[in-house]
Write a structure and sequence with these properties.
It is a single chain. This protein is an alpha+beta fold and 114 residues long. It has helices at 16-32, 69-81, 95-113, and strands at residues 2-10, 36-52, 55-67, 85-92. The chain has a four-stranded antiparallel beta sheet, covered by helices on one side. A hairpin with a 2-residue loop joins strand 2 (36-52) and strand 3. It comes from Leyella lascolaii. Belongs to the bacterial ribosomal protein bS6 family.
């Protein structure tokens, strides 16, 4: 199994509940296909560098997971079919990126505790 990281941007016209529902939908898609979710971060509403579909802000979400390579295609098909998703990118992490991601997760967890 490989380790992946995907960041997707949801349209800013969604309510908080709709945004959380969309994130849960993609998490369920991954777990139903045998992926193990390592980390989930919701970065909130952020201003984008340039307008996409005439929108200058969006809800940013990050999912870090371990899965077989075939699941990535299924996930990206789900992103393309969902009109709430403006942009997405999925990256396979090499061993150095995976180590960095683990450090970042631990640092983020310590902030949450404080």
């Amino acid at each position: 199994m490989n380790q992946y990281e995907t960041v997707f941007i949801l349209t800013p016209v969604l309510s908080d509940d709709q945004m959380k529902e969309a994130v849960a939908k993609f998490k369920n898609l991954l777990t139903e296909n045998g992926a193990e979710i390592l980390n989930e971060e919701t970065w909130g509403l952020k201003k984008m560098a340039y307008a996409i579909q005439k929108k200058s802000t969006g809800f940013y979400c990050l999912l870090e997971f371990k899965a077989e390579p075939t699941i990535v295609k299924t996930l990206e098909t789900g992103f393309r079919r969902d009109e709430k998703v403006i942009r997405f990118i999925t990256v396979k992490l090499d061993k150095y990126a995976a180590q960095y991601a683990e450090k970042r997760r631990n640092k983020y967890a310590k902030k949450e505790e404080a």
